[in-house]
Specification:
heterodimer; A: mainly alpha; B: mainly alpha; MetI-like fold; 13 helices; membrane (chain B)
Chain lengths: 334, 285
């Protein structure tokens, strides 16, 4: 139990450090930039016609207060932390007066759903294929499927998504290419709504799966082909243990440990892919929200989404860290 | 060097394909120095011409030749990728080697920072940087930002190599001979770390090019400078797919996929060459 407590303490420290540095970084980027967000927003709003200079001045003050840009840098920094903890990023400019936080909260379930589903599929399938390919090295079918997923792996999510969109949206139009569910359906636990959810999620999820599959395949295959030559495997083979059992208990289980660590490390990158994919398929998650915020010059929204996504990724990494001891007995027992 | 290259071309089919692909794309990109028209000029040619003998890959709705646009675009995209790779290698090597060699507290502090950076999502941070910089964003700034975010995986890898060198005999000899830490790292350890640097550089290049494509597809870079992502951005702006101008979007996609494939094949075959175990199994031992 002592080992577990130590492990947990270290992970917890790392978790808070990530959030501390990430939030500070978001603050620093917005504060050190040469562009003043208040002036930018004022320019955006006065674009449409001449405005009374006095009301512009009032607007400027109101925005400064809203964005928490009053006082010294340290005051602003502390105020920013207060806002992060309260979960209050002020109203969104492009969807005034909806608070940024409620926009994010309504988008977050979409992203979490899409990401969790595609990650589970990618990780399981990639590891299974990779382990099989590392164990049965001369199997032609495994070699071919390996070559296919490896060739897709370096291509960025946007390009793969665009090809899928062209293929299934234009050339052979069988899947919807935009939105998260059918517009005229009432959200709820009805069969129609669930079906529409699945159909709309297919292309974005498929994009993320195709992008992610290769890296799991490659690392799992090399892990397994190294473990296969280990003494304990050779001994088990000589002892007549069935090859199925060797594969699942002796080889794959050992190789899964670094892959679980890899999953935690890759989350930040995977989230980036999801941002782009959501935008491409107009999927109503936080990624689309952020890119729309950028196009519309919505300072509060962009800052809010960045901060929340940093925290969300940190939470997800921490959850995986908590799962790890369940699989690795050494952490539990040492 | 040339002997290794010759052997790998002869015995490693992946390397040979990757080498030929990358080289031909590089030569194609190089050709943009002899382009008949400046690459930023628009509406000089008849717009929306399909591929023909005169315009091999057709022309865009902005009156540009797709062939020459692609040539400059690949050049600019590769330039961006290489800049990111070189800058982030410097960081990764410095942090990784120092952390591995110094060990103890330094190692712990540097690696904690490293792991923290890995857990931060890159794309939202890059988008935030673009958002607050807006018009003052140029490609070198973007490259520097990407480099600051793209070194941490590889620093860990380099650290583990240095860690294993630290307790070797020759390191102790060097210490007794009075070499300073920078001297030991550069003269004694760097040659052993070089293969890892080279391998990670290939992967980092692929990552950086993917990043450039992603950001410029969204219009988050200098959109008047031709890049692969920028071409797709403009094609989307003119709704090329709906208007049926398929050549504007198909050829850049094909080019960038070929480039990725070439670089990736190079990366895995170099990795295999560095790892003696897989080299032996290829030779049939």
């Amino acid at each position: 139990m002592d080992g577990f407590a130590k492990y947990l303490g270290r992970r917890l420290f790392q978790f808070f450090l990530v959030i501390f540095l990430g939030v500070s970084l978001a603050f620093l980027i917005t504060n050190l930039s040469p562009v003043d967000p208040v002036e930018q927003s004022v320019a955006l709003m006065t674009n449409f016609g001449a405005t009374d200079p006095r009301s512009v001045e009032l607007m400027r003050q109101a925005l400064q207060e809203l964005y928490g840009l009053q006082g010294s840098m340290l005051d602003q920094y502390l105020a920013f932390w207060g806002r992060v903890i309260r979960g209050d990023f002020g109203p969104s400019l492009s969807a005034f007066p909806t608070p940024v936080m409620s926009l994010i909260m309504s988008a977050l379930p979409w992203t979490i759903g899409l990401l969790t589903l595609s990650l589970v599929i990618t990780w399981t399938l990639g590891n299974l294929l990779g382990a099989l390919a590392g164990y049965y090295r001369s199997n032609l079918l495994l070699k071919l499927s390996g070559a296919a997923v490896m060739a897709l792996h370096p291509v960025p999510a946007y390009i793969i998504g665009l090809c899928l969109l062209l293929a299934f949206g234009f050339i052979w139009p069988i899947l919807p290419i935009s939105g998260g569910a059918q517009m005229n359906l009432q959200p709820g636990l009805t069969l129609d709504y669930l079906r529409s959810l699945i159909v709309h999620g297919t292309l974005p999820a498929l994009t993320l799966v195709l992008v992610g599959l290769g890296s799991w395949f490659i690392s799992m295959r090399s892990l397994v082909s190294n473990i296969v030559t280990d003494d304990h495997v050779v001994y088990a083979e000589l002892g007549g243990v069935s090859s199925n059992k060797i594969f699942s208990q002796y080889v794959a289980r050992n190789a899964l440990l670094p892959q679980l660590t890899g999953l935690a490390l890759s989350l930040g990158n995977v989230f980036g892919g999801a941002v782009i994919t959501e935008f491409l398929f107009n999927y109503p998650g936080v990624g689309r929200l952020m890119i729309q915020g950028i196009y519309r010059g919505d300072y509060a929204l962009v800052l809010g989404v960045t901060t929340i996504s940093i925290i969300a990724v940190a939470v997800a990494v921490f959850i995986i860290d908590l799962i790890y001891p369940l699989i690795d007995p050494r952490v539990r027992l040492s | 060097m040339f002997k290794i290259l010759r052997d790998m071309l002869r015995y490693n089919i992946e390397f040979a394909i990757g080498f030929v692909l990358t080289l031909s794309i590089f030569l194609f990109a190089l050709a943009h120095f002899w382009a008949p028209l400046p690459d930023t000029a628009i509406y000089l040619l008849p717009p929306d011409m399909p591929p023909s003998a005169q315009y091999w890959f057709g022309t865009t709705s902005r009156g540009q030749d797709v062939l020459w646009q692609m040539s400059s675009a690949i050049w600019n995209t590769m330039l961006f990728g290489l800049t990111v790779t070189v800058l982030s290698r410097l960081l990764a090597v410095a942090v990784g080697m120092l952390s591995g060699y110094l060990g103890g507290r330094w190692d712990q502090a540097l690696m904690t920072l490293n792991d923290t950076m890995i857990a931060l999502p890159n794309i939202p941070i890059l988008l935030l940087v673009y958002f607050v910089m807006r018009d003052s964003m140029s490609w070198p700034v973007l490259a520097a930002t990407a480099a600051l975010l793209g070194w941490n995986y590889d620093a860990r890898l380099i650290r583990s190599v240095t860690l294993s060198l630290r307790n070797r005999e020759f390191t102790r000899h060097a210490v007794f001979a009075g070499m300073s830490v920078p001297q030991i790292l550069v003269r004694q350890h760097l040659p052993y770390v070089m293969p890892v640097i080279f391998f990670t550089a290939m992967n980092n290049l692929i990552w950086a090019i993917g990043l450039e494509v992603t950001l410029s597809v969204l219009g988050f870079s200098d959109i008047n400078r031709p890049t692969i992502g920028g071409m797709i951005y403009w094609a989307n702006q003119h709704q090329a797919i709906i208007a049926g101008i398929w050549w504007w979007i198909a050829f850049p996609i094909i080019a960038v996929v070929l480039l990725f494939l070439g670089l990736f094949l190079l990366a895995i075959s170099v990795n295999e060459y560095i790892d003696p175990r897989s080299r032996l199994s290829r030779m049939g031992a």
